[in-house]
Amino acid sequence: FFYKEKILSPGQLKRLSDHKYSCESLSILDKFLQPWWDWLVSKIPLWLAPNLITIIGLIINILTTLVLVYYSPDAKAEAPWWAFILCALGLFAYQSLDAIDGKQARRTGTSTPLGELFDHGCDSVSTVFVAISACIAVQLGSYPSWMFFQCFCAITLFYCAHWQAYVSGTLRFGRVDVTEAQFTIMGIHLISAFFGPEIWSIKVPSIGIFEFRHLILILTVVCCSVPLYQLFIDICNGGVGKNGSTVAGTSVLSPVIPLSLVIVPAFIICRKSTEHVYENHPVLYIMAFGLVAAKVTNRLVVAHMTRNEMDYFDSSLIGPAMLFLNQYFNFFIAEHIVLWICLIWVCFDLIRYSRQVCLEICDHMRIHLFKIVPSVTPQAIQQTSNKNGTATVSNNRQSRSRKHYH
Predict the structure, then answer these.
(1) Three-class SS string for 116-137?
(2) In whole angstroms, how far apart are CA 195 and each of 15, 78, 207, 211, 291?
(3) DSSP string, 316-373
(4) Region Disordered: what ranges (predicted)?
(5) How many CB atoms lie within 10 A of CB 35?
(6) How far apart, in whole angstroms, are the C-alpha atoms of residue 376 and residue 44?
(7) What is the pLDDT of residue 279?
(8) Which of 22, 105, 166, 335 is a plausible cystine mate for 111, CB 3.0–4.6 Å?
């Protein structure tokens, strides 16, 4: 059940091949950053595959965040100033590389639906680490409930963006969206680096009960309300499918179930823990459940691009189930040990799923994931013709399809 030989059916692969990227962006900052992105992509060698650019950016983002996690695993301890600067630079690098991967694909003539899917998949993982890094920067571990709210708001917003795309067929970005949020978090890191994280605990002048970190909470609520309102409008207006359904012909409300199967258990396990597993290990907890949400979001993106129904249950939910059963039956295993097992399982399951989906698409479209392979030119066909004048293009295709995808 959990390890199907093939994740995508032939019909899904065919519909994926026919998928056309549709996006609307009103971002304030994007137009100012376009010259930087255009200059940057012009310096990228033509042999560098777009997906390789994306994954390099994600790795940088994850590693720089893990430096912060190393120094502040409970989101309470103060990390060194240089770790915040490193994290800000890592996020800027990820944002820049994420912005130019599509430009590189068009520049090299290698634009495919796989590139869009791979980009969104990396974004789903990055969202988790960016949210965690922001919480560490303002030491939200001292306010565990607030940290839970902040992180799951970010995760939910990313999921809802693709839920809206699943309903309307178009991915929409508002005037204040991903780019603006990323620069805000970069600013938070730089403030923590130069003034120390304790600056966020200073009371706001003239408003004695508010700390500066409360402004982030207000900003989060405001930024969440706009896209959630837009999602509500899209649902009320109906989808682009038959009888107001989604692109896959399913109910516009159906994506709420997979998301609920992540957030509701996360909340219940957190509240019912006798060992206070979340309060004592907030970063580990958010990381584990955040990656479960990333896996579910990836499946939503796949469902949208293949115009297919989304399954409600997922193998990554085995991780949270282990935590729940350990609590329910009061096993002797410490909850933080089970949480580590949960994280390891979720990482393994996410990587396995992503790898298999990518390889299936690569095999179907006869492309490579991390390498640009020159197409067969008429000159090459002429040179490889045999004595009877019969070209060997079919053999070339077969040999390419058997190569390992790098």
Answers:
(1) HHHHHHHHHHHHHHHHHHHHHH
(2) 52, 12, 21, 15, 32
(3) GGHHHHHHHHHHHTT-SS-HHHHHHHHHHHHHHHHHHHHHHHHHHHHHHHT--SS---
(4) 382-406
(5) 9
(6) 24
(7) 93
(8) 105
Q: Sort residue 310 into left (φ over 0), alpha (ψ -120 to 50) or beta.
A: beta
- Bridge partners of residue 172, in order along the sequence: 24
Residues of the chain predicted below pLDDT 70: 1-4, 206-208, 374-406
Q: 3-class DSSP state for residue 217?
A: helix
Dump pLDDT digits (tens) for 228-284. 887 788 777 888 888 889 899 899 999 999 999 999 999 999 998 888 999 999 999
Catalytic entry in 120, 189, 281, 304? 120
Question: What is the token pair recorded at 252?
Answer: 């516009």
Residue 248: helix, strand or coil by DSSP?
coil
Whose tokens are 């130019």? That residue is 100
Q: Domain-by-domain residue ranges, the chain?
A: 10-365
What pLDDT is attached to residue 202?
Answer: 83
> For residue 197, which phi and psi values (nearest 5 degrees)?
-60, -20
pLDDT at 208: 63
| Interacting residues of 90 by C-beta distance below 8 A, sequence separation 6+ | 60, 61, 63, 64, 65
Task: Tell me whether residue 120 is one of the annotated catalytic residues.
Answer: yes
Tokens 């409930």, residue located? 145
Place of tokens 């994926």: 16
CA 138-143-321 angle, 5° bins:
110
| pLDDT score recorded for residue 2 | 55
Pairing of the two strands 171-173 and 203-204: unpaired
Between vectors from CA 282 to CA 280 and to CA 288, what angle results, nearest 5°? 125
Closest C-alpha to 183, from 379, 36, 46: 36
334 φψ region: left (φ > 0), alpha (ψ -120 to 50), beta (else): beta
Structure pTM?
Answer: 0.88
Q: What is the pLDDT of residue 225?
A: 80
Quick check: 151 and 288 in contact, CB under 8 A? no
Helix (H, G, I), strand (E, B) or coil at 310: coil
